[in-house]
Design goal:
Order of helices and strands: EEEEHHHEHHHHEHEHEHHEEHHHEEE
Number of domains: 2
Distance between the termini: 23 Å
Number of helices: 14
CATH architecture of the largest domain: 3-Layer(aba) Sandwich
Radius of gyration: 24 Å
Shape: elongated
Oligomer: single chain
Structural class: alpha/beta
Largest sheet: 7 strands, mixed
Helix content: 25-40%
C-alpha cells in the first residue's frame, strides 16, 4: 500500500493542533490533536511512498516507533486514505484503456468521498464497465441520461425508442441538431458511442440488465407508469427507475427493486385508494396519442436527467439511493424538490409489501463516509 490522503478532501487547520479533511458535513473528518511533526508527516501521504519509506521519514522527524502505522490506521478507519495502486483485473483493464482513466478522474475523486476503504473508488469505477443499462426513451430526458451513463464509464448503454428525431428532441447533452429526421434509436446509440470512455467490453453472450431506466418522451408514462409494461421486469427481478417531465413537473423515481420496494402497481393502487376517480381518468389519458410536442421545459428536463443519472450510478456502484421506493418531484416555477414516499401495497402482486428494501438507506447497502472525529497525538 502507498497511502495517500484523498485529493478530493480539501485540508484545513481548524486550530493549531486540529486538521479537518473535507468541506461538507457529509464527508468532513477532523483529526486531532496533531503535533507539528505529525503535521509534517501528513504532507508526505501523497501516494508516492510505501509504509517502509514512511516509517523512515517518521524516524527522521523523531516520531516514536509505531506512530506512522497508528496514524495510517487511524486515517484509514476515518475514510481519509486512498490507495492509488488499486488491485484486481477490472482495475488493471481500466488502466490499460487509453485515456479512459484521465477522463474519469473527477468521477474517481467523487467516488473516493463516498466509499471510505482505500482503493474502493477505483474498484467501483472499474466495475461499471461490466454493467449493462437499458434506457427506454430518447427524448430530452432519456438521451441525456444515456449519454451521462456512458460518459461515466458504464460499459454498455442500450437505448430503445421509435420514430424519427424531431426538432424538439434536440437538447444540449442529448440528441444533436444533425440527428433531426434520423431514427431516434440510431441517433441515441451514436451519441452513446461518441461520449463513451472506450469501446464497450466484448460480450461473452448476452449480459443481463443491471438496470432499466424508463424515460419516455411523453413524461406521463413516467408519472403514471403502466404496471403491465413493467410486468416482465418484476418477473425477472430487473431493477428499474422512472424519470421524466410531464406538463411543468419533473419526476425521478421510484427506483423499483422487484420484491423489495414499491412498484408501478403499488403506485397505481395507492393512488386509486386516495382518489377513486383516478383509474378512470388514467384510462382516458392513455386512450389517445399526442401528435404534437408535449410540454417539456429544457432546464427542468436537464435537471431531471442529471438527477436520474446520479441515482442510477449510485445504485450501480452498490448504494441504495433515496429514489428507492420514493419519487422526487419538482414543479415550475418554484422548483422545490420534494420526496414522496411510496410504501408497497398489500394487494399488489409484486410481493414487496412483505419484504420491503425501501426503508433502508444507501449506507445499509454500501457504507458511505459521514462526519467522523479521530484523535492522533505525537
Amino acid at each position: 500500500m502507498h497511502p495517500m490522503v484523498k485529493p478530493a478532501l480539501r485540508r484545513a487547520w481548524r486550530e493549531r493542533d486540529r486538521v479537518q479533511f473535507g468541506v461538507t458535513p457529509a464527508h468532513a473528518v477532523v483529526l486531532g490533536p496533531v503535533d507539528p511533526a505529525t503535521g509534517c508527516l501528513l504532507a508526505l501521504l501523497d501516494g508516492t511512498r510505501g509504509l517502509e519509506l514512511l516509517r523512515e521519514e517518521g524516524r527522521k522527524l523523531d516520531l516514536p516507533d509505531g506512530h506512522v502505522d497508528a496514524l495510517v490506521a487511524e486515517l484509514e478507519k476515518a475514510g481519509v486514505l486512498d490507495d492509488p495502486a488499486g488491485h484486481g483485473s477490472a482495475v488493471d483493464a481500466l488502466r490499460k484503456r487509453d485515456g479512459a482513466l484521465d477522463r474519469l478522474r473527477p468521477d474517481l475523486a467523487s467516488l473516493s468521498t463516498v466509499h471510505p476503504e482505500p482503493g474502493g473508488a477505483l474498484e467501483r469505477l472499474a466495475a461499471r464497465r461490466s454493467m449493462r443499462v437499458q434506457v427506454r426513451g430518447a427524448g430530452r430526458v432519456g438521451a441525456a441520461v444515456a449519454a451521462v451513463l456512458s460518459a461515466s464509464g458504464v460499459g454498455r448503454v442500450d437505448v430503445l425508442d421509435g420514430g424519427c428525431t424531431e426538432p424538439w428532441d434536440v437538447a444540449p447533452g442529448g440528441l444533436p441538431e444533425e440527428a433531426v429526421g434520423e431514427r431516434r434509436d440510431v441517433a441515441a446509440r451514436r451519441l452513446v458511442r461518441r461520449v463513451a470512455t472506450g469501446a464497450p467490453p466484448r460480450a461473452g453472450g448476452e449480459a443481463g440488465l443491471s438496470l432499466v431506466i424508463v424515460a419516455p418522451r411523453d413524461g406521463f408514462d413516467a408519472y403514471v407508469p403502466d404496471p403491465g409494461a413493467a410486468a416482465e421486469w418484476i418477473a425477472t427481478g430487473t431493477p428499474h427507475l422512472y424519470a421524466g417531465v410531464v406538463e411543468g413537473t419533473g419526476v425521478v423515481g421510484p427506483l423499483v427493486l422487484p420484491g423489495g420496494s414499491a412498484c408501478a402497481g403499488c403506485l397505481a393502487l395507492r393512488r386509486a385508494d386516495r382518489d377513486p376517480g383516478w383509474p378512470r381518468m388514467v384510462a382516458q389519458w392513455r386512450s389517445g396519442r399526442r401528435s404534437t410536442a408535449v410540454a417539456c421545459d429544457l432546464g427542468l428536463a436537464t435537471a431531471v436527467a442529471g438527477l436520474a443519472a446520479a441515482h442510477a450510478l449510485s445504485y450501480l456502484d452498490g448504494g441504495l439511493p433515496t429514489a428507492t421506493g420514493t419519487r422526487w418531484e419538482a414543479s415550475l416555477p418554484l422548483l422545490d424538490w420534494r420526496a414522496a414516499r411510496i410504501p408497497p401495497h398489500a394487494e399488489c402482486g409484486c410481493g414487496a409489501a412483505g419484504n420491503s428494501a425501501g426503508g433502508k438507506t444507501g449506507g445499509e447497502r454500501a457504507s458511505g463516509v459521514g462526519a467522523q472525529h479521530a484523535t492522533m497525538a505525537g
